[in-house]
Design goal:
single chain, Hydrophobic Seed Protein, elongated, 340 residues, 2 domains, alpha/beta
């Protein structure tokens, strides 16, 4: 419903029903060209017909135990109860199709919030985030994807409940973070994650880029510089065929070695010698912990390692052998390195 109102409706449609998953599956098998049940334990059955993908989910009322990494799935009996458990009001709208005249259901004023471009929760944000802490990351992701703001009470709850993210699996955090990084405005999403303290819980290297700058030793703001590099990389990624996860992650991580290599030089200077080496190692360790694909881990960490190589080329100081060595070392990542 949200995407339809925003003019973003694609070929993926979501439905909810009081029918139990097994009953939904039986009905779909008689109608759809393909049916799958990989999400059946969460009440979801998928289907495809005429190149349209459908997901039908039984009314739910999920919650997390205080120390559980997986939600306890409880099926509900009403659309009102199902919408109340949704993450945000803009996602808590539905159209009743079983009546003679379709009925628009919006018990939490989602349309109003959609027009205001603001993210609020149907109930209290504390209750919503307690039910599923991943929703805090989803807030940052939706803000980045839709260019929405987040209400003050939701932002406050995200700051207060950031520790709750510890019960969420690395895989779920990774998948949500990827959606933020690959959004139209990742700078906004990352800023929200850092400002709320959420980023500290799964990617602490980024908030640590906010290095203290004293009056005697000046250097550029590494954190702001990093966000700018991300934006610059996005502006150039058409060279890579479009939005590119490896390039965006490399831009985000390219200077993570600076805090550990920062040295103050007498006279007011600051050095970050070998930060690309340290940063490459840190990047590999962090992406592994977040369960990123092996090739992504290797490519991103290699780009971090190589990101200083291109400096100096423009002043004509490179020899032919240096150019050949640069191309050889970059290998298949040469185009990515140029974007970075």
């Amino acid at each position: 419903v949200r995407d339809s109102l925003l003019g973003r409706l694609g070929n993926d449609l979501d439905f909810t029903t009081n029918a139990r998953p097994d009953d939904t599956k039986k009905i779909l098998k008689k109608w759809a060209s393909d049916v799958w049940d990989v999400g059946i334990k969460f009440g979801t059955i998928g289907a495809n017909k005429d190149n349209v993908t459908y997901e039908i989910t039984t009314y739910r009322a999920d919650s997390y135990e205080s120390d559980s990494r997986k939600p306890e799935v409880n099926f509900g009996d009403s659309i009102e109860g199902d919408l109340f458990r949704r993450d945000f009001t803009v996602n808590a709208m539905a159209i009743e199709l079983t009546t003679q005249t379709p009925e628009f259901i919006d018990p939490h004023n989602g349309v109003t919030d959609l027009l205001k471009k603001v993210l609020r929760t149907p109930g209290t944000p504390e209750l919503s985030f307690s039910d599923d802490p991943l929703r805090m990351l989803r807030a940052a992701r939706f803000a980045a994807q839709l260019n929405f703001t987040i209400s003050d009470d939701v932002m406050s709850a995200m700051k207060e409940m950031a520790d709750r993210l510890s019960i969420i699996s690395a895989e779920r955090i990774r998948d949500e973070f990827i959606k933020t990084v690959m959004s139209d405005n990742p700078r906004l999403g990352i800023t929200i994650l850092v400002d709320t303290g959420l980023c500290e819980k799964f990617l602490p290297e980024i908030p640590k880029l906010r290095l203290e700058i004293d009056e005697h030793h000046h250097h550029k703001d590494v954190y702001e510089h990093t966000l700018t590099v991300v934006e610059q990389s996005i502006a150039l990624e058409e060279r890579l065929g479009g939005p590119n996860l490896v390039a965006r992650l490399a831009a985000l991580m390219h200077d993570v070695g600076k805090p550990k290599t920062r040295a103050l030089i007498p006279g007011g200077g600051v050095s970050f010698h070998h930060h690309e080496v340290v940063g490459s190692r840190m990047t590999k360790e962090r992406l592994k912990k977040l369960r990123f694909d092996h090739d992504v881990v290797e490519d991103v960490s290699q780009l971090v390692f190589l990101h200083l190589r291109f400096h100096g080329y423009g002043d004509g100081a490179w020899t032919d052998s240096a150019v050949r060595r640069y191309v050889r070392d970059a290998g298949e990542l040469l185009s990515h390195l140029h974007v970075l």
